[in-house]
Design goal:
Blueprint lengths: L1 E11 L5 E12 L4 E5 L6 H8 L7 E6 L2 E2 L7 E4 L11 H11 L4 H14 L15 H14 L4 E5 L7 H18 L2 E6 L2 H7 L2 E6 L2 E7 L8 H4 L2 H23 L8
Parallel strand pairs: 3-8, 3-9, 6-7, 7-8
Antiparallel strand pairs: 1-2, 1-4, 4-5, 9-10
Helix pairs in contact: 2-3, 2-4, 3-4, 4-5
């Protein structure tokens, strides 16, 4: 169980001005749930995710995992970033075993786990290949295999499929759903894409100005194809999210002085 209790996070800009990235956020995520944090850029979703990972220091409130306060990174939480984080000086297999070796696991166990997860993501034949020889989508598969191989019960993903083309992104979304259903891991996934959140999530937490403004159960059958997303319930969920995003747009429009270019 992840519990976020009145979490606030402030950052000081180089100008000296402080920005509140999270503002008294409270949310609970039960074990095994797939949650999407959704919102516009700069509205706190990545800050919340990085705080869950222990990469940001809160200025108020607390985050706990199974009752233990998050004070930094831990082996119980794996992370997949938007940026390409595959080590270029290691082969694919060496990348996947890196975390396992750091945990002191035996060489054969590291090898077996790496091959298990490389097979799961369709890269068993590329184990000894260098990352520079892979496409962007394949490198993202390496990152996913590495995260699952770590054994962390909680996986956090910060817009990992954003830079990819549509077809590759859909393939990886389907792969991630399959791995989640197979393993029962808890997944917290940041996105600004409403369609992506409807495809992936059991639950969508919408953030605006660092606050939770909606918390929606995505009670749609799987697989979430276009027909399911266009169903009456799918449309209701989409409109609810759009409504929150449009409210922000309307408020911004209200404070723009007359004659100011849009």
């Amino acid at each position: 169980m992840i519990s976020v209790n009145n979490a606030s996070c402030d950052f000081a800009l180089s100008s000296g001005r402080e920005v509140r990235a999270l503002d008294n956020v409270s949310v609970s995520i039960p074990d095994g749930q797939f949650v999407c944090l959704l919102g516009r850029s700069g509205h706190g979703k990545s800050t919340l995710l990085r705080s869950l990972a222990g990469l940001n220091r809160l200025t108020g409130g607390a985050i706990t995992v199974d009752g233990q306060t998050v004070a930094g990174p831990g082996v119980d939480r794996g992370m997949v970033f938007q940026e390409d984080t595959v080590f270029p000086w290691m082969t694919v297999r060496q990348n996947v075993t890196f975390g396992l070796r750091a945990q002191g696991r035996a060489a054969k166990e590291c090898h077996d786990e790496a091959m298990r997860w490389l097979s799961a993501v369709g890269l068993a034949d590329y184990a000894d290949v260098w990352p520079k020889e892979l496409s962007g989508g394949m490198r993202k598969r390496v990152a996913i295999a590495t995260a699952f191989a770590s054994g962390a019960p909680i996986l956090m993903m910060d817009e990992p499929f954003g830079p990819l083309d549509y077809v590759t992104r859909r393939d990886l979304q389907n792969l991630l759903i399959e791995l989640w259903q197979t393993t029962g891991r808890t997944i917290v996934f940041v996105t600004h894409d409403i369609e992506e959140s409807l495809v992936l999530a059991e639950r969508i937490v919408v953030l605006r100005h660092g606050r939770v403004v909606d918390d929606i159960d995505v009670d749609l059958p799987r697989p979430r194809d276009e027909e399911v997303r266009a169903s009456a319930r799918g449309v209701v969920i989409s409109k609810a999210i759009l409504g929150e995003l449009e409210i922000e747009g309307a408020r911004a429009a209200q404070v723009v002085p007359q004659g100011t270019p849009a």
